[in-house]
Amino acid sequence: MSKNPPRRPVHPGGLLRRARQRMGEDLSAAMREDPAATSKVLVALMYPGVHAIWAYRVAHAMWVRGPAWHPWARLLSQIARFLTGIEIHPGATIGRRFFIDHGMGVVIGETAEVGDDVLMYHQVTLGGRSRGRFKRHPTVGNRVLLGAGAKLIGPITVGDDAKIGANALVVDDVAPGETVVGIPGKRHIGDVIA
Ligand SMILES: CC(C)(COP(=O)(O)OP(=O)(O)OC[C@H]1O[C@@H](n2cnc3c(N)ncnc32)[C@H](O)[C@@H]1OP(=O)(O)O)[C@@H](O)C(=O)NCCC(=O)NCCS
Q1: Are 136 and 129 in contact (CB under 8 A)?
Q2: Which residue has the CA at smallest separation from atom 43 of ligand 1?
Q3: How far is the C-alpha of 124 from the C-alpha of 107, rounded, in Å?
Q4: Strand, helix or coil at 57?
Q5: How many angstroms separate the CA atoms of 122 and 139, rounded?
Q6: Which ligand 1 atom lies nearest to the CA of residue 149?
Q7: From the CA of 165, how far away is ligand 1's center (Å)?
Q8: Which of 55, 65, 108, 156 is the most exposed place for a label (fewest CB within 10 A)?
Q9: List of the chain residues with pLDDT < 50
Q10: Which of 121, 158, 181 to mutate to test the pocket of ligand 1 (most atoms within 8 A of CB)?
Q11: Atom 2 of ligand 1, nearest CA residue
């Protein structure tokens, strides 16, 4: 028996309609979250965070088609990174109406998961703490705010409606609705953390 169920054929008209709807809601998210945004046309033309998420959605669709598509998905995400300064691994799982404001310096790792209606500012990292090929990046819930420069590392979970302050370093789970600020720097004796 085949491991993967056969793919349902996708009608091109339906695909285009869905893509247009998703792009529309990405633009609405930018208008809602950025008080400086004055028109959807300007957002569509000039917001690198929006361009990066659109490129990611195409790259992710390639990625999930299977390993033969992975080099092409990586190529597209590298082109998007070159143009926007935002690096999103095509294997990451990102929900709807995700908005990255400013964007430059964002890194989202391969096994990261991001919910719906998440707002992220520039220089946020959703990174790993180990180099194994397993779930090693954060899982971020719905409606989470990720402040500029926040670093979330390891397979931690950030609950719905949480807020992560600018420049926070988060290495432990965050409860739903919780606000976390600051850097938990402490002396680490023993093996160097990868
Ligand atoms: C963490 C954050 C969400 C908290 O917002 P809030 O709930 O409205 O909290 P407040 O602003 O009332 O601050 C509460 C306390 O946390 C402190 N605080 C706020 N943000 C902080 C941060 N990033 N790091 C350290 N302390 C912070 C405040 O000084 C205040 O301290 P006090 O109680 O001793 O006076 C918000 O401050 C933040 O960092 N947002 C990200 C904004 C951002 O990245 N903007 C980039 C735009 S380009």
Answers
A1: yes
A2: 147
A3: 6
A4: helix
A5: 18
A6: 44
A7: 6
A8: 65
A9: 1-2, 194
A10: 181
A11: 165
CA 147–ligand 1 middle distance (angstroms): 9
β-bridge pairing 107-108 and 87-88 = parallel
Q: Give pLDDT, residue 81.
A: 98
What pLDDT does 188 receive?
63
Q: HSE-up of 181 (CA within 13 Å, CB side)?
A: 2
pTM for the complete prediction?
0.91
Per-residue model confidence (pLDDT) at position 15: 84
Q: What is the pLDDT of residue 57?
A: 97
Give the model's pLDDT for residue 99: 98
pLDDT tens profile 61-90: 999 999 999 999 999 999 999 999 999 999
pLDDT, position 130: 87
Q: Which amino acid is at 55?
A: A
| Amino acid occupying residue 52 | A
Expressed in angstroms and rounded, the spacing between residue 182 Cα and the centre of ligand 1 is 10
CA 102 to chain centroid, in Å, comes to: 14
User: Closest Cα partner for 99 from 152, 25, 149, 170?
Assistant: 25
Q: Are 170 and 152 a contacting pair, CB within 8 Å? A: yes
